[in-house]
Amino acid sequence: MNENDYIHSFYKPPFLVMETLAEEAKKNGFPIIGVQTGRLLQHYASIANARRIFEMGSGFGYSALWFVAGMAQTGRIICSDFSTENLQKAEKLFANLHLPQQVIPRCGNALEILELYDKFFDIVFIDIDKHWYSDAFDAAWPKVRKGGFLIADNIFWKGTVFASATGNESTEAIQLFTRRVFNQPDAESVILPVDDGVLVAMKK
Ligand SMILES: C[S@@+](CC[C@H](N)C(=O)[O-])C[C@H]1O[C@@H](n2cnc3c(N)ncnc32)[C@H](O)[C@@H]1O
């Protein structure tokens, strides 16, 4: 048994369908968050007693499902993605679980969709194409409530960020984003070495 197997031996997925969804994503080569990251999202949703979550890059709703497992029953998660097809799958997924009211699918550029909301969010999650990350932070940070969280996936970008000059656009975008977050005066931030690296910034 390795470290991951050991950790996973304690985790039961909050929804049975999650294992099938993860297997299908793997088979189709669609990138989704890891199980430990999912557990973390669930945990932060509970800690924040989240009622309003905005997700940038929802795919077919797998990460949103982890958030739903932790957020308040009256909570809502706005799922944004470029892909109508995937958002329809997300809607179907939540409907099958009798949770249709908890997800609000919005198709288009996540940064532009977020601009349409003027109320604060308990959590904003960033999991979009990496070259958007810094702009996503600038769009999202003013919308995070005090004591709320901005969470971003793929902070290690498969380990490529550990080198100083890679010439890779996505790697450099993640490095820039991470510096940007840690320079934000009203953010208390941490990088968690979970799956592909998760950054959590709490608004002070
Ligand atoms: C890594 S996948 C998201 C996976 C999802 N968070 C999960 O773990 O279940 C990234 C998604 O972001 C979407 N995407 C990339 N850039 C985007 C943007 N600027 N606005 C909206 N969606 C975007 C892609 O269409 C893709 O579905």
Describe this protein's structure.
There is one protein chain. With 204 residues, this protein is α/β, with parallel strands linked by helices. The protein is built from eight helices and seven strands. The protein has a seven-stranded mixed sheet, with helices on both faces. Bound molecules: S-adenosylmethionine.
Write a short abstract of this structure.
By secondary structure, the protein is α/β, with parallel strands linked by helices.
Give the key terms.
7-stranded mixed β-sheet, 7 strands, alpha/beta, binds S-adenosylmethionine, Rossmann fold, globular, 204 residues
Query: Which molecules are bound in this entry?
Result: S-adenosylmethionine
Radius of gyration: 16 Å
The number of helical runs is 8
Q: What CATH architecture would you give?
A: 3-Layer(aba) Sandwich
Q: If you average the pLDDT, what whole number results?
A: 96
State the name of the first-level CATH class: Alpha Beta
For this structure, the CATH topology is Rossmann fold
State the end-to-end distance. 40 Å
How many individual β-strands? 7
Strand order of the largest sheet: 3-2-1-4-5-7-6
Task: List strands and helices in order, with pairings.
Elements: H1 3-8, H2 17-28, H3 35-47, E1 52-56, H4 62-70, E2 76-81, H5 84-96, E3 103-107, H6 110-115, E4 121-126, H7 133-140, E5 144-153, H8 169-182, E6 187-192, E7 198-203
Parallel strand pairs: 1-2, 1-4, 2-3, 4-5
Antiparallel strand pairs: 5-7, 6-7
Helix pairs in contact: 3-4, 7-8
The structure holds S-adenosylmethionine.
S-adenosylmethionine is lined by residues 31-33, 57-59, 62-63, 80-83, 86, 109-110, 127-129, 132.
